[in-house]
Amino acid sequence: MKILAIQFRYLGDAVLLTPALRAIKEQFPKCALHALVPQEVAPLLEHSPDLQQVWPFPRVRGQANLPRAWPLLRRLRQERFERSVDFVGNDRGALVSLLCGARERLAPFRPGGFLARRFCYTQTVRTVPELHQVRNNFGVLSAWGIKAPPCPQIRIWADPALAAKAQELLPKRAILCHIATSQPKKEWPVSHWADFLNLAQAEGHDAVFCAGTAAREQALLEALRQRVPRARILPPVPELATFLAVLQRARLFISGDTGPLHFAAGLGAPTISLFGPSSASQWAPLGTEHRFLQGGKCSCNGQTAVCLSPNPCISLITPQAVWRAVSEALREVVIDKPR
């Protein structure tokens, strides 16, 4: 049997999909499991032992480009999948599910969308949005008799060929702090990061700071450097595959609610996550090696990328609270085990 798993969402969501992919293989051990994900997401899954093939889909957010995607869709139709499961159920996923030609096409029920969207699937399942996203994925798979384990573990693999390059960028395993996200309202203030670094160094520990390659994110690193000139900054790493190899060297990873948080957790690094406007109960990594701190109640508009409150909820997480969480992790978690 050939099964196609479809996921058109953010980078971190693809990592959160990995327990569901593993469960499909356990339920159907002889199946050939393929994954169709956005082109930029493919490096996260291409070394997974659960997948026979990862298909990178060319896309631009908010734009449909069927002529550009059609050669890939035609190749997918030639695979003759018996089943497909779209874990998002949005308009793009619905059309692709139909065009890929699987006989059974499963997805979560989503209200709205274009009029014929529900006819693109042969079965939809109602899920509970308030649940953790990992468990919501299993809610979709319940239609196939697949149940979630007590504590689903996300897992991804870095390219071993990039280990030497990663060691050049991060020579020693370190506490790695990712200070940016795609939405500024999810970012812990730079002043808090500076105070946290001072606390860590006072206790004899150091940290390395990183961010995405976008100008705004790199500006946050420069602002931190201005506050703490001795701060260690990771050079920009534009290739996702190389960044994953660097993350695998993290002794401990700290960040807000962003894709790299899930990358690090999937690679086996203990994490401490800082949540403000988003919910830790829905998005924080699962497992005892992962800790989270939730800020105050969010009062700004959930649809805006920038916090409109004079007291951003994530800023209520104090540097002292984060350092306490780090100290507990350094004492209690086996953080030097090989990965």
Summarize this, please?
With 339 residues, the chain is α/β, with parallel strands linked by helices. The chain contains twelve helices and twelve strands.
Silhouette: globular
Sheet with the most strands? 6 strands, parallel
Specify the number of helices.
12
Please report the first level of CATH classification, the CATH class of the largest domain.
Alpha Beta
Name the helicity range. Answer: 25-40%
CATH homologous superfamily of the largest domain - what is it? Answer: Glycogen Phosphorylase B
CATH architecture of the largest domain: 3-Layer(aba) Sandwich
Write down how many β-strands occur, each being a DSSP E stretch of 2 or more residues: 12
Order of helices and strands: EHHEEHEHEEHHEHEHEHEHEHEH
Number of domains: 2
Derived from helix and strand composition plus strand pairing, the structural class reads alpha/beta
Q: Would you write up a description of this structure?
A:
There is one protein chain. This protein has about 350 residues and is of the alpha/beta class. Helix 7 links the parallel strand 7 (about 175-180) and strand 8. Helix 6 packs across helix 9, helix 7 (about 190-200) packs across helix 8 and helix 7 crosses helix 12 (about 320-330). It has helices spanning about 10-15, 20-25, 65-80, 90-100, 135-140, 165-170, 190-200, 215-225, 240-245, 260-265, 280-285, 320-330; strands spanning about 1-5, 30-40, 55, 85, 105-110, 125, 175-180, 205-210, 230-235, 250-255, 270-275, 290-295. The strands form two sheets. It has a six-stranded parallel beta sheet with strand order 3-2-1-4-5-6, sandwiched between helices. A six-stranded parallel beta sheet has the order 9-8-7-10-11-12, with helices on both faces. The protein has two domains: about 1-145, 3-Layer(aba) Sandwich (Rossmann fold), CATH 3.40.50.2000; about 160-330, Glycogen Phosphorylase B (Rossmann fold, 3-Layer(aba) Sandwich), CATH 3.40.50.2000. The protein is built from twelve helices and twelve strands.
